[in-house]
Amino acid sequence: MRLAVFCCLMALIVADKEARIKNYQFGIEDDGSFEAVYETTNGISAAEDGVSYPGLEPETGNYVKSGSFSYVWEGVTYTVTWTADENGFHPEGDHLPDFSHTREHIGDISDIEK
């Protein structure tokens, strides 16, 4: 998990070779929950938390995660908040299109399980 967060952070920094990590915190608890926060000198910041729900069989279960990230582009700060769970990745932001109505057309994972 730390490697994934670190790789994402490094990919963002590549665009600005002068950027440095100002703040990086990561913690994982015995119950499988975690929190991660970072901020760079070029205005990128992100926070993420989640919890693991083990399944009844080995190698099953899921994570429920949520977080946000912000960045500055041409003087405008863009922020995306998101959740990710068994129903997929759900980003929201003022600059993103609203796909909330899509679920009405394609259904929900619980519709399949019936």
TrEMBL record:
The keyword NADP does not apply. This is Pupal cuticle protein. It holds the Pfam family Chitin_bind_4. The keyword Signal applies. GO terms for molecular function: structural constituent of chitin-based larval cuticle. One of its GO terms (cellular component) is chitin-based extracellular matrix. Residues 1-15 form the signal peptide. Keywords: Cuticle, Signal. Residues 90-114 are annotated as: Disordered.
